[in-house]
């Protein structure tokens, strides 16, 4: 496969990936890797594979391609490519929670001789190092790294990097329990997305909304937390971002636990898990969650006494009576108010949605 054909196939894979045809994109890029002899093309496609596997939560595969990319960079004998590949290796270890290795690879990046990419990637190196220090609860060094990354972003007018740093600062302040700042920085990230992110991936909006949801919950503003978390989950499901889906599930559970809706939080988790497994075609896991969902329905008496269908499994309009009985609204319109099913604690489908 020649240089021009390699470039065309890489672009084809990018178009498929951006249209959410992830598996087809991976197939195209894998073929390029198998057939192309163009080192620069191979380096670029390895970067695509690293990014794609990162967003799908396949961190071991991400690490595998990052290691191959370093070998390719060495063959190219180019300092810019070597810096980029070491950064991908640092990120891979960060995702795998190998934080000491992440810091070591980041230091390798910073120790490389001056390169053209240094000004652009230096901030990303500092961000990855800050995330690793935060993972190790070394808060002072984490903050120093985030502030350094923020300076890189400002000096280079890199709004995308600033957005990512603001999200990480949100996590930092949430951990040290300054909840006002934990909200301020994700809000700043969301503002950057609105002002500059027209051509960005929707993952930046999803990321800022998730961190806002966490901060709102910690501040006790549960309605705002739910709204932001739902927006983040919607984008994560649309783009197949499984790590973010998992974070949103945990956030949903925390919100319901803060409300005291312990049974409801369990139902919410099962509803969302079912939709994730269905979209991935994982039939065995899907069946297990469907069974568990209906067990929860029975345990909480979450069903309509007229039609016998469960309440909370899908979007539907409900009617509540003063006695806390709830039934599907279509039965109220057609058949009066008799024989309604009871729902524990008066929870409605609106709370599950």
From TrEMBL:
InterPro entries according to UniProt: Postsynaptic (IPR001237), Postsynaptic_CS (IPR018293), RAPsyn (IPR052480), Rapsyn_myristoylation/link_N (IPR019568), TPR-like_helical_dom_sf (IPR011990), TPR_rpt (IPR019734)
GO molecular function: acetylcholine receptor binding; metal ion binding; protein-membrane adaptor activity
Keywords: Metal-binding, Repeat, TPR repeat
Stored Gene3D superfamilies: Tetratricopeptide repeat domain
Highest taxon in the source lineage: Eukaryota
Record carries keyword Metal-binding: yes
Start-end of each TPR repeat: 123-156
Domain (Rapsyn myristoylation/linker region N-terminal) ranges: 1-80
GO biological process: chemical synaptic transmission
A Pfam family reported for this protein in Swiss-Prot or TrEMBL: Rapsyn_N
Any Gene Ontology CC annotation: synapse
This protein's name: Receptor associated protein of the synapse
Protein source organism: Homo sapiens
Lineage, top ranks: Eukaryota, Metazoa, Chordata, Craniata, Vertebrata
Gene name of the record: RAPSN
